[in-house]
Amino acid sequence: MNLLLLIGLPLLTAVGVLLSRNTQQVRSIAFAGSALQLILALALIYFFQKERAAGAVAQMLFEQNYALFPSLNINFHIGVDGIAVSMILLTALVVLAGVLVSWNVEKMTKEFYFLLILLAMGAYGFFISLDLFVLFFFLEIAVIPKYLLIGTWGSGKKEYSANKLALMLMTGSSLVIVGILGMYFGNGEHKSFDIIQLSQAGISPAVQKLFFPFLFIGFGIFTALFPFHTWVPDGHSSAPTAGSMFLAGISMKLGGYGCLRVATYLMPQGAQEYSSWIIVLSSIAILYGAFATMMQWDLKYMNAYSSISHCGFVLLGIGMLTKTAITGAVMQMVSHGLMTALFFAVIGMIYERTHTRQINEMGGLMKVMPFTMTVLFIAGLCSLGLPGFSGFVAEMTVFMGSWQNADAFHRIATIIACMSIVVTAVYILRAIGQVAMGPIKETYAGLSDASWNEKLAAIILIIGIVAIGVAPFLLNDLIKPGAEIIMNKISGK
Amino acid sequence: MPNAINIALIPLLPLAGFLLLGLFGKKIFKNSAGIIGTLILLISAGLAIYTAYGYFFDYGKVNDVYQKLIPLKYTWLEFSKDVSIDMGIILDPISAMMIVVVTFVSLMVHIYSLGYMKGEERYSTYYAYLSLFTFSMLGLVLSSNIFQIYIFWELVGVSSFLLIGFYYDRPSAVAASKKAFIVTRFADLGFLIGILVLSFYSGTLDFNTLIQKLTSPESSELKTAIASSFLGVSALTWGLTLVFIGGAGKSAMFPLHIWLPDAMEGPTPVSALIHAATMVVAGVYLVARLFPVFALSAPDALSIVANVGAISALFAAIIACTQTDIKRVLAYSTMSQIGYMMFALGVSKYGGEDGLGYTASMFHLFTHAMFKALLFLGAGAVIHYVHSNDMKDMGGLRKHLPITHITFLLACLSIAGFPLLAGFFSKEEILLAAYQHNAVIYWIALITSGLTAFYMFRLYFSIFWNKAYHAHGEHHGDGGVAMMLPLLLLAAGAVFAGYIPFGHFVSTDGKPLESEFHLSFSIAPVALGLIGILTAMWLYKNENEKPAKLAASLSGLYKSAYHKFYIDELYLFVTKKVLFNLVARPAAWFDKTVVDGLVNFTGNTTQDISERIKGIQSGKVQQYAIYFLVSAVVLALLFIYVWKG
Questions:
Q1: Per-residue DSSP letter, A298
Q2: Beta strand B65-66 with A74-80: parallel, antiparallel or unpaired?
Q3: Half-sphere exposure at residue A122, Cβ-oriented, CA atoms within 13 angstroms
Q4: Rounded CA gap, B224 and A237, in Å?
Q5: What confidence tens digit (pLDDT) does each residue in B592-617 have?
Q6: SS3 of B305, please?
Q7: What ipTM did this prediction achieve?
C-alpha cells in the first residue's frame, strides 16, 4: 500500500474544498474526503496485518525514500509500524467525526474545513515520517491551523487562548528542533535526520544526556506535560467544537508519539537517565490534574483538565520503560483521543442547545435529549475507566506494566496513578449527575435531541471506543511488536 | 463433560437481552420488554440449573473430589507469556451454586417486576438494566481469571449505579447512585492494587495457577511473596488484604457500608436482586474464591476478614433495631447477615472438618438469598400498597395483604433462625464453626442472632399488626399473579432450602463434609431468637407507649444508633472538608495562579521588554547614525582593551 495516499488524499480534499462554490459543496467534499480517509486507514491496518502475517519482519512496512536535499542528507523517508498505524486510525476517526459535528458552521465554512483538513494532513504526515526534518515540517503544519481555528471560530477569550496555545506549542517546537539538530550534528561525521539510520548508528551517551530533555520537554508540551500544560484548558475551551476535538484527539497525540518515537527510541540512554523525572512529573499530572478537575464547573474546562490527567498516563507509561507500559501508553493515546473527541463533541451538542457550559446551570437533560445524554454517559464511563470501553484497557495495561518495576519509587508512582481512578469517578459522576439527571429545568423542556450528523459522529467514535474495550487484543497485537523494538533498544539488546 | 457453549450462554443471553432492549426497546419493545427479558432469563436459568445438575451429579467429581473445571478460556489481553487477562469460565462447586442463585433470584425479580413496574415510562430501560446487571453478575461468578473478575466487578458496579439511579429525576436517587459507585470504586482501588501485588508475586492472573503457586509449600513464588515485606507485613498478606478491601466495599462491610442503606432509593425489586441476594455477596464470593490462599498462606489476612465480618454483623444489627424505613431495616439486616458469611469464612481453616466455616458461609449465602429476596419483594408489595417506606404509615396490614403477610412471616422466622426453617440450619452451622475456632466471635454472633430476631419481628409487627390500617385510595390488595408467584416460590426456598446437605457439595477441598447436628448446641441460639421475637411482640404487637419509653431510657445509644453512629457524617467531613477544601481547591488555585501565572508572566515580560526596546527601531536615520558611531567607538575601545590586556 502506498503511504503517499495518506498525504495525497487530504491534500486533494483541501484543494477540493477551496475550489468548491457553495457551503453545500464544501461539506460534501470534506465529508467524502474524510470518509475516504477512514477507509484508507482501515485498509492500511488490513494490509499491514496481512503483511505481518505473511512474515514481513522489517521494523517499518510500506517504506518509501526520496532524496529532498542530498547535500544535507534530508530525505522524504516514510514508513509505518503498528504504533504509527494505530495513530493513523485514531486520526481518521476523529477527523471524520470532527467534520460531521461541524456541519452547521456558518461562518467562513470553506476556510474552516480547509484548516481542519490541513491539520489532518499534518498529523498523517507526522505519523508516517521516518526523517526528522520531514517530521518536524509536518508538526509545524499541524500547529498553525489551530491558531487560526481558535482565533477565528473560537469563543470566550479566544485571542488570549490562541496566542497562548500557539506560543507555548512554538516553544515546544523550538526545543524539538534544537534536539533534532543536536542529534544531527552529534552523530559524528555521518550527519543524518533518518530515524532508522540514527537508531542503528546509536547516538553517543553524552549527546543523549544533553539533548534528551530538549526533545522530551518539547514534545511533552504538546501532550500536557506538567508544568507546561496550561495551554490545554484555555486552548480547548476557546476552540470551536471540532477544534477541541482535533486538539485533544490528534494534536496532543503528536506530542506523545514524538516522546516515544523520537525522544525515547532514538535516545534510550537519555530516557533511562531521566526516567525518574518523567515518572515524577507524570504522576503529579495524573493526580493533581484529577484534583484540579474537581474544581472545574465549565464542561469544557473539566474535560480539558481531565485530559491533563489522562495524558499523564501516556507519559507515565513511557517513563516506566517496560514493554507492557509502553504498549499501554500507546493504547492510552488512542483511547484518550477517541474518548476526548467524543466528550468535546457531546459538550458541543449540549452547548448548541442550552447555550451554557456551566455544569450547575443544567439539569435533567436526559428527559429531552436521551441520545445526547447517553453519549455523555458513555464518554464519562470511558473516562472513568469502565471495562467494556477503551480507557479501562489502556489504563490497566499501563498499571500492569508499571508494576513490573519492583522498587518502592515505581510502586508509589503507580499507586498514585491508580488513585486517580477514584477521583475521576467523583468528577465524572458529579457532572453526569448534574447535567443528565435530576429534575429538568423549565427553560430546557423544549430542547431537541441530536441531529443525524451529530448522531453519526458520536456513533463513529463510540464504535472505536467499544471495539477497543471489548476486543483489546486487536489493538494490543498491533502495538506490541513496535513497543518491543523500542524496549529492546532501551534494554540494549 | 460440560458443554462450554451452554455455560457461556448463561451470561451471554442476558447480554443479548440488554443490547436488544437497550438499543431498540423504546421503539419496538415498549410494552413487551418485560416478557422478552423474562423469557431470556428463563432460558438462562434453565441452562444454569442444567449445568449445576450436571456438575454436581454427573461429571464434577473425580475420585469423590469436586474438580475445578475450565471449560472455556480465551486470551483477551496478553501482557506477557504467562500474564494475560483471559475470558474464561470456571466451574466448581461455588460457581455452580452461584449461577443457580443468581439466575433464580433474577428470574423471580423479572417476573415480579412485570407487575411492580407496570405502567412505568421507562419500562424497557428498566429491563435492559436488569439484564445488564444479570449478565455482569453471572460473568463475575464464572470468572476464571482474577482480572476477569475485576472487569465484571466494575460492570456490576455500574449496573448497580444505573439501577439505583433509575428514578433519575429524584435528586436523592442521583445522590445515592453516585455514593454507591464512588464508595465501591474507592474499595476497588484496593482490589486493583491487590491484583497487581498478587500477580507480581505469582506471575499469573489465572485463578487456578495463582492459587496453586501461592499455596504449595515448595513453590518459590510463595516463598518470595512471604519473604518480601512492607511495614513488617508480608507482601502476600498485603495483597490479600487489599483484595479483601475490594470485597468489603461491594459487600458493604464496616466501614465501607455507607452506600448500602442509601441504595434503597432504587426500585424495590432491584434492591431484592442487587442489595440482598447477588451483588452484595460478591465480596464473600471473592474471599471464597481465593480461600485456599487466605487459609493456607496468609492467616493474618483471614483473621482480618473474620474481625471485619463480626464487627459488621453486630454493628448493623444494632442500627437495624432503630431504623423506621422498612427498606433500610432490611438493608442493615443484609449487612449484618453478610457479616455472618464473612466471619464464617474468616474462622474457617482449609480441609476436612475444620473447613466447616467455609461450607457454612456458602450455605448461608444460599439460604439468605432466598429469604432476603423474599423480604425485599414482600416489602415492595407493602410499599406498593401504602405508598410509603415508613413504618409509621403502616400497621394492621395482615388482613389487607394476606399472601404477603404469610410469606413475610415465613421469611422473618427463617432469618431469625426458627427451628427447621432454612435460616436455622445455615446459621447453626456458622455458629458451630465460630464456636470451634474463635470464642469472641461466637459470642458476638450469638448476641447478633438475638438482635436479628428482635429487629425482624419489630419490622413484622409494625407492618402487619400494631395499629389498624385505614385503607384510602385504591384497593388492589396483594397485587397480581406476577407479584405473588415469586413470593410463593421464594417462600418455598426460605422454608426448605435448609434441607440440602450442603456439605456434600461445597467444601474447602472438594471432598464431602458431614456436618453433625447437635441438638444441645442449638438451645442457646434458639432461645435467644425466641426472646428476641417475644420482646418484639411485647413492644410492637399493639400500639403502645413502651417503644418510645424504651428509646428515651436508652437515649444515648438509641440516638447514635438511629443516626447510624455518625459514620456518614464522618465521611462527609473527610470528603467535603478535607479532600475538597484542602486538596482539590488548592490544586486548582495553584494551577491557575502559580503554574499559569508563570506562563502569563513570561508572556507579559517578553511583551514588556519589547515594548520598551521597540523605540530603538525608530526609523530615523540620524538616530541610527548615532547608534552606529557609539557602537563603533565602544567596539574599538573593547578591541584595544583586549589586545593590550
A1: B
A2: unpaired
A3: 23
A4: 51
A5: 888 888 888 888 888 888 888 877 77
A6: helix
A7: 0.91
Question: Distance between CA atoms of B410 and B146, rounded to whole angstroms?
Answer: 38
Q: What is the pLDDT of residues B149-188, one digit of tens each?
A: 999 999 999 999 999 989 888 888 888 888 889 889 999 9
User: At B50, is the secondary structure helix, strand, or coil?
Assistant: helix
Please tell me the number of Cα atoms within 13 Å of B388 on its side-chain side: 12
Would you call A168 and B155 a contact, using CB atoms and an 8 Å cutoff?
no
Could you give phi then psi for residue B474, rounded to 5 degrees? Answer: -75, 150
Q: Is A491 exposed, middle or buried (0-12, 13-18, 19+ CB in 10 A)?
A: exposed
Element (H, E) at B293: helix B291-297
Residues B477, B495: Cα–Cα separation, whole Å = 24
For A418, residues 6+ apart whose C-beta sits below 8 A from its C-beta are: A399, B189, B192, B193
Q: Using CB atoms, pick whichever of B154, B189, B598 lies closest to residue A422.
A: B189
Domain limits for position A128: 4-491
Compute the distance between CA of residue B335 and CA of residue B314 in angstroms, rounded to an integer: 10
B451 vs B319: CA distance, rounded Å: 10
Task: Tell the residue number behind the cell numbers 518539547, with chain if given.
Answer: A218
| β partners of residue B85 | B77
Instruction: Please give the grid coordinates belonging to residue A218.
Output: 518539547
Question: Which chain B residues are within 8 Å of A403, Cβ to Cβ?
Answer: 196, 199-200
The mean per-residue pLDDT over the stretch A59-66 comes to 87
Q: Which among B178, B193, B591 has CB closest to A433?
A: B178
Q: Partners of A271 in the beta sheet?
A: none
Residues contacting A134, CB < 8 A, separation 6+: A68, A74, A75, A76, A77, A78, A125, A193
Flag whether the pTM goes above 0.80: yes
Looking at CA atoms only, how far is residue A324 from chain B in angstroms?
6
Buried b (16+ CB within 10 A) or exposed e, A2-13: ebebbbebbbbb
**Which residue of A295, A324, A422 is in closest CB contact with B588?**
A295
Query: In this predicted structure, which of A33-47, B318-332, B392-406, B550-564 has the lowest mean pLDDT?
Result: B550-564
Longest dimension (CA), chain A: 73
Looking at residue B472, its pLDDT comes to 61
Q: How many CB atoms lie within 10 A of CB B516?
A: 9
What's the average model confidence in pLDDT over A425-434?
A: 89
Count of domains forming chain A: 1
DSSP assignment of B145-184: BHHHHHHHHHHHHHHHHHHHTSSTTSHHHHHHHHHHHHHH
If one counts every other C-beta atom within 10 angstroms of the C-beta of residue A463, the result is 12
Helices H, strands E: what count in chain A?
20, 2
Cell numbers describing residue B508: 474447602
Residues of B in contact with A312 (CB under 8 A): none
Which residue of B30, B129, B185 to mutate against A (max A Cβ within 10 Å)?
B185
More confident residue, B229 or A232: A232
What type of residue is B309? G
